[in-house]
Specification:
alpha+beta; Butyryl-Coa Dehydrogenase, subunit A, domain 1; Butyryl-CoA Dehydrogenase, subunit A, domain 2; Butyryl-CoA Dehydrogenase, subunit A, domain 3; 3 domains; seven-stranded mixed sheet; two-stranded antiparallel ribbon; 12 helices; 15% strand
Length: 394
Amino acid sequence: MDTRLTAEQDEIRRTLRELLRARCGPAKLRAAADTPAGHDPLLWQALADRLGLPGLALPERYGGVGCSVAELALACEETGRALAPSPLLATSVLAAPLILALGTEDQRAELLPRIAAGSLTAALAVHGPALATALALTGADDTYRAGDGRAGGVQARRAGGGWRLYGEAGQVLDGHSARVLLVAAHTGGFARSRTLLFLVPGDAAGLVRARQSALDPTRPQGRVQLRDVRAEVLGAEDADVRPALGAVGDAAAAVLAAEAVGAADRVLERTVEYAGQRTQFGRPIGSFQAVKHRLADVYVEVQAARSAAYFAAWGADRGERAGGLALAQGLRALRRAAGEGIQLHGGIGFTWEHDAHLYFKRAAGDELLFGPVHRLRDRAAEAAGLFAVGEVAV
């Protein structure tokens, strides 16, 4: 693995950082997060027009840039630094790869070019707080079910030559604003129980959506209710969607790890800067050895998380499944960097007016959605065979 950035990768990082510095400062970030959609549509279109960010990892034949997961992770490292609220995670990291992997050629040709252009946003809707399970981050591929009979989740039934969905999915990233939904639904009853993904337009009859209050305001979530909604199967009806969900989950975890590293790096920078300005007993608090040690420990942890995230992103296109472990490392680094940032900022760090709490909420919110850290590590150890029981020779 060559850890040096190519000229193209360095340009992506530089251009995106400049754009976000100008268009997503603290005041604009809070204003965008407070809108009904939870993001700034003008910023999203600027990211599409100037960088092709929505289609960065999509093939050129569908209007994308044709880059790999590594470039997408580098881009998300920069959006993580700014905590930029955007449909990037839901649309380009989760939904678009599933359409590319499972969709028919007609479905790909219809949806992917619009996603790459930034004119179409998408969201993956799964039952309840089961996103990490669906993406095989905290359990094996065969443990996920879209619903439990008629007791919950989203159910699918045939009707009039098509499919109808009914049920509810909560905690859907951008589920309240996405223009198309990929809904995981349970079908086949108990005898032939299986999970399929369905395409549902955002304006479909019987679809009821609302934004939910979430711990992290920069990661908007919605509740999706489907009341006998007409839907189209994504891809073939006999396809097994779980391997695709697992592959997308690992790549998404690598991207999320890079995003967490960017956020941790930024909050550490701000804390170091503040420690050099705030004086106590006639000297900057950053000159005290105890403070230096705490910041040095955070720096080491952030750099280790960056190495893990880069390796996971590099390996995602090569069959290396290291995303979950890298995500665990990234979330741990972000939580610690944000926690130390709040404490070392003193009283101001605990106020809602300061940005430190936004980084802490990002760490805690992502753990609720994609973790927690110990389950991510357990799954990685299980996948590596570390918990396998060997046969005892007689």
